[in-house]
Specification:
Strand content: 25-35%
Number of strands: 36
Low-confidence stretches: 1-30
Number of helices: 4
Radius of gyration: 25 Å
């Protein structure tokens, strides 16, 4: 039995220490540092007789990308921006002085290192052999079903590339997410390296004619369409296999050139796990199966509220932690209206694979989000929605809304799995008025200034697009011989023949608290910015 409770306790204790000394989420101003000053690795500063075409190397901290400046002039010109690596291959001439500088970047700003220099050997020695030419492998043939006479949008996995002189660019035409017509379309993917060497591969996208009379689940309103038409938006649907088409992820910028007034976060094609990538993203699939007296045909969730978060093994976050799990979370958390404050259950489609421990959980559930509480410390335990409130007992340095949610999968009266989801936003569009939770109070309402430590801070640009989420293994209690469990939307057991059944995939395990990060934390935090031109107030 794999049990990580001890390590989870240590992680929770460290979190408690952090809260005690002022790391509370109500005061996140300054929680993330500017990047550290880059440190020289090689070649040594002012070195002479340096081998031709040497590779520059450096190190940094709290950094998401680097800009490289290199040349024979001082200050050196920019030759590479947004570089993720800490090395850069140069092309030099013999007997020349070269200057170089590294600028470290993250969301808080940039930090420039000093200008270093070296002199190449007078006679060019034998340069290192060039890297092998790039090789590209396309995904397998893709398929889809047209939703209109013109076809449908098809998102496909990215090709994989090996070899080549960095950086290597990949262009696929037609692009992933484009509208593909009925019939077969050949996609050509081309990789080009820094030496302009190219490699190509092809695969087919086959689109079947649209089913006759199949309805689309999920109502949208005109104020979220931006400059796109409803017909273009209706292209982004997938067949749920139950007689309905479901709306799915689409880019904010449509390939046709129009711009939607909402966004859905990460492109599902970014997942590097084949099982997760093959699982369709169906907005509203869980809600349609949650029928109540008030909603006998199923629970409608606002389309713009569906947000996708992708985490791959090896991802490094803004805290320098490395991820150990594959995760895709499709959570319903919009901030454009007040309904979320009183709605206890929100849908989540979470696919998680922990390759080190052989753990897998693919769940579609209505997560318990609890009630609306204040974001001030001490925070309420999960399930809860900790939000900005006009009755806040503390002054806020910066905005923050975070939900702690949970739900279980049950079989034969026992809990088989407990799922967790923790979405958050740094720019909620609306805030809570506890005296009237149904009132739409924008974050820039004058009343909000009374709960801010910096009343003059401008929050009028908030669109709910600066978010974070967590890749978090759940708790496995599955000691049965089964891995497939038929349930309702709340995780309660149903007969497999029930028309509203949802099949939950839970691997056999008794793992509790499997670590998600390289340093043993139970959650890998992903903080990302999805803000684009044209986002509306309902996002």
């Amino acid at each position: 039995m794999i049990n990580f409770k001890r390590y989870r306790t240590v992680a929770l204790s460290l979190c408690a220490i952090g809260l005690a000394i002022g790391w509370g989420t109500a005061d996140v101003r300054g929680a993330m540092r500017r990047p550290g000053t880059p440190t020289l690795v090689s070649p040594a500063n002012s070195a002479t007789d340096v081998t031709a075409n040497s590779t520059l190397a450096w190190s940094g901290s709290s950094t998401s990308s680097y800009d490289v400046r290199f040349g024979t002039q001082n200050p050196p010109p920019l030759v590479q921006s947004s570089l993720k690596a800490t090395t850069y291959a140069t092309v030099t001439q013999p007997g020349a002085i070269y200057y170089w500088q590294i600028v470290a970047n993250n969301r808080q700003g940039s930090t420039a290192g000093p200008v270093w220099s070296f002199t190449t050997a007078s006679q060019a020695g034998n340069p290192p052999p060039p890297p092998p030419a790039p090789a590209i492998t396309c995904p397998s043939d893709q398929s889809g079903t047209a939703t209109a006479a013109s076809g449908t949008a098809v998102a496909y996995p990215a090709p994989t590339v090996t070899g080549g002189a960095l950086p290597v660019s990949v262009v696929s035409l037609p692009a992933s997410g484009s509208i593909f017509p009925v019939g077969m379309t050949t996609v050509v993917a081309t990789a080009t390296d820094a030496s302009l060497r190219q490699a190509s591969c092809t695969f087919a996208v086959n689109v079947a004619p649209p089913p006759a009379g199949m309805p689309i689940w999920g109502v949208t309103t005109s104020d979220v369409l931006g400059t796109c038409s409803a017909a273009i938006h209706d292209h982004y649907v997938l067949d749920g296999g139950d007689g309905y088409l479901y709306r799915t992820w689409h880019p904010q910028q449509d390939p046709s050139g129009c711009t939607f007034g909402h966004e859905h976060g990460d492109d599902p094609a970014l997942s590097q796990n084949s099982e997760i990538a093959a699982r369709p993203v169906l907005f509203g699939y869980v809600g349609r199966r949650m029928r109540t007296a008030d909603e006998p045909n199923g629970h409608e969730e606002a389309h713009e509220g569906f947000k996708v978060f992708i985490a791959n093994v090896g991802d490094v976050n803004d805290e320098g932690r490395t991820n150990r799990v594959y995760s895709r979370s499709v959570f319903h958390m919009g901030t454009g209206g007040p309904k979320r404050f009183t709605m206890q259950h929100h849908s989540a489609d979470i696919a998680l694979v922990h390759p080190e421990f052989g753990l897998k959980a693919f769940t579609r559930l209505m997560m318990d989000t609890g009630g609306a509480n204040t974001v001030c410390d001490p925070r309420a335990p999960a399930p809860t929605k900790d939000v900005i409130s006009l009755a806040s007992p503390c002054k806020l340095n910066s905005p923050y809304e975070i939900w702690g949610t949970t739900q279980t999968v049950q079989s034969q009266g026992k809990i088989i799995y407990r799922s967790f989801a923790t979405p958050a936003t740094f720019d909620p569009v609306t805030v809570l008025n506890p005296a009237d939770p149904t009132e739409k109070v924008f974050a820039w309402d004058p009343r909000v200034a009374t709960i801010k430590n910096f009343p003059s801070d401008d929050w009028s640009y908030f669109r709910g697009c600066r978010r974070e989420s967590y890749a978090q293994p759940g708790y496995w209690y599955n000691q049965t011989a089964l891995t497939q469990f038929p349930t309702d939307a709340m995780g309660n057991e149903l007969p497999a023949s029930d028309p509203l059944v949802i099949m939950q995939t839970i691997s056999r395990s008794s793992s509790v608290g499997a670590p998600a990060t390289s340093d043993g934390l139970a959650q890998f935090k992903m903080r990302r910015n999805y803000c684009g031109t044209g986002l509306g107030l309902k996002n």
